[in-house]
Amino acid sequence: MLEINDLHVQYPKAKEHALSNLNLSFQKGEFVCILGKSGAGKSTFIRCINGLQRPTSGAVIWKEKNIFHLKEEQLRKVRVEMGMIFQHFNLIPRLSVYQNVLTGMFGKRPPWKNLFGIFSKEEKNLAVKMIENVDLTGHKDKRVEALSGGQKQRVAIARALLQNPKVFLGDEPVASLDPGTANRIFSLLQSIHNEYDLLTIINVHDVILAKQFATRIIALRDGVVVFDDIPDNFTDEVYDLVYE
Ligand SMILES: Nc1ncnc2c1ncn2[C@@H]1O[C@H](COP(=O)(O)OP(=O)(O)OP(=O)(O)O)[C@@H](O)[C@H]1O
């Protein structure tokens, strides 16, 4: 479904590579957690998948095309198929939950419709359904700035779902949340993953969460894959190799 071929990233002026010769293949239905120390290359990797970060060399193959060879407009369409959530939610604080979720439609529509905030009845109904899916119905008209961190991440998940993505990407989506809330967000991501039959790829610092929810764990160290297997095989020895 998604192929990463010989991916190499070196940031300008950096002495070391951020990612080195990554070769990975992902299938629909996989719930993948990316682990690694701070600076291991997790964010860089996630951002390459949907073209937010251009590699120095290598390819991300989606629907048999290297996304880095696509024109900007085609790349935007790819990004619509890859919903993404972030550590700091990336919401518009003064807008309501409902208005924020509706912005998930933006990538799919002509810019003038976005400019004038014109949404069809069907689009509005879908936004309401997604808010229901993430259990925020009672908060629909509240400003996002008045919500807790966990609720904000639910809004971001609903917004990403409105794109009807095939791939769900998360760049440290629970890093700002307490352990209980983080666990509930992962449960939600897991049920959405199953309901919509997605490929999910998430960076996470918490090994326990990764072992609880992932079907596959990939660990990076200094930009290189040092583990790629089922969670049961992520042993204490592997932990030491990744985090020492
Ligand atoms: N914009 C940038 N310019 C230069 N170097 C960068 C940039 N972004 C990341 N790096 C470097 O690339 C390497 C990988 O960074 P990346 O953010 O991908 O790691 P990470 O595993 O996500 O870390 P963290 O868990 O702290 O978010 C690090 O050495 C980092 O300093």
Automatic annotation (TrEMBL):
Name of the protein in question: Phosphonate ABC transporter ATP-binding protein
Any one Gene Ontology cellular component term annotated for this protein: plasma membrane
Recorded GO molecular functions are: ABC-type phosphonate transporter activity; ATP binding; ATP hydrolysis activity
Q: Which Gene3D superfamilies match?
A: P-loop containing nucleotide triphosphate hydrolases (3.40.50.300)
Q: Which gene encodes it?
A: phnC
Pfam families according to UniProt = ABC_tran
List residues of the ABC transporter domain. 2-244
Q: Which InterPro entries match?
A: AAA+_ATPase, ABC_transporter-like_ATP-bd, ABC_transporter-like_CS, ABC_transpr_LolD-like, ABC_transpr_PhnC, P-loop_NTPase
The transmembrane segments are: none
Keywords in alphabetical order, please. ATP-binding, Cell membrane, Membrane, Nucleotide-binding, Phosphonate transport, Translocase, Transport
Q: Which domain of life is it from?
A: Bacteria
